[in-house]
Amino acid sequence: MMFRWDGGFIMVSWDGFDEGVEWYTHHFGWTCLDKVITPVGKKAFLQMPKAGVVTLKSFEGDYEHFLNDHGEEGNVRLCFEIGDLERMIDYARLNKIPFSTPITLPNGMKSIDIIGFENARFTVFENPSLKDTYPEAKILGFGEVNTRIGVTNLDHAVEWYTKNLGFIKKEVNHEMGFAHLQTEDAYDRHVLKETFYDNIYLEKIETAVKGNPSVRTYFDIRPDEFFDAYNMLIKNGVTPSQIAGDPMKGWGGFHIFDPDGNRINIWSYQMMREVYKG
């Protein structure tokens, strides 16, 4: 059973929801397609300039899955793409937006973390080929590397992700301290009826942290497989959270933690209702 990469949520407080929409449309150059209140909280669907929609989602105290426990961001990063790293840094400095020291990943891409509204951490990669394509926008879409996950043991982590989430092992490089995994893209599979593989990087770290990131990667499982997948994880010794919502009536989701405390989010939804993903 394969859990397919499907974008994610940017979490925000209930009271700060509208201000969060304004912040992301102003600073990142995104367009708000719609704002709704659903049985699992507030959602805003934000269109990115190049491609893709990401959902701003309110924390919701009625569900374990949407609690704001004010924990650490952790070592799971949903990744985005920018065209010009220096332009992004200059903009962040001018607008007093915190950012990290740039790093270079094993694939040669330059990356930084940017701290968004309510201290949400965004990881972005530079794609120089897009430098002048969207001059007014800051974050253009999801990245070529879709998700980065920090793990203390590459081999054990590869085994865990291939067994429990059905990911495909492409490469393990102990010298460089990373492993390259792939999984299918949910949108391509379910909407376009095509097969496209997204990239997951496992990165060697020294210390594990149990994280609760505000910018959350989600993996999709179809409603007719949802409860079988939930029970399969339990059978494999993984402890899922309680289920929020109901995928048979619209949207449902839960999360698990890998052995390093990395939070992995799973959702499922009815295609005719969830036009925007999530």
Automatic annotation (TrEMBL):
Where on the tree of life does the source sit, at the highest rank? Bacteria
What organism, scientifically named, is this protein from?
Fredinandcohnia quinoae
What is the designated name of this protein? Answer: VOC family protein
Annotated Gene3D superfamilies: 2,3-Dihydroxybiphenyl 1,2-Dioxygenase, domain 1
Q: Where is the VOC domain?
A: 6-127, 141-269
Query: PROSITE patterns attached here?
Result: VOC (PS51819)
Pfam family of the protein (one): Glyoxalase
